[in-house]
Amino acid sequence: MKFRVTMKDPDTLGDAIKEAVEGDVKFLVDDPDEQSALIEVRQEKVSEICKEWFKWGEYLTVEIDTEAGTAVVVPVKDL
Fold this sequence. Notes:
The protein is an alpha+beta fold. It has 2 helices and 4 strands.
């Protein structure tokens, strides 16, 4: 049996991106002002990439296949 489930959480993706980018940037740049600018630019780039899987930055659809024992994220274009 296959079925799809859509999950909504408006803050989780943004929070995860921010945390990952901040962790990356703090090792690259010492100046706090430069860090802030770089974090903002990188957050926007990563958010743009995630649009492939997250509709409006908060909806994620997963297709469950109980026979194959898989769970696959459905690209937004396939919804």
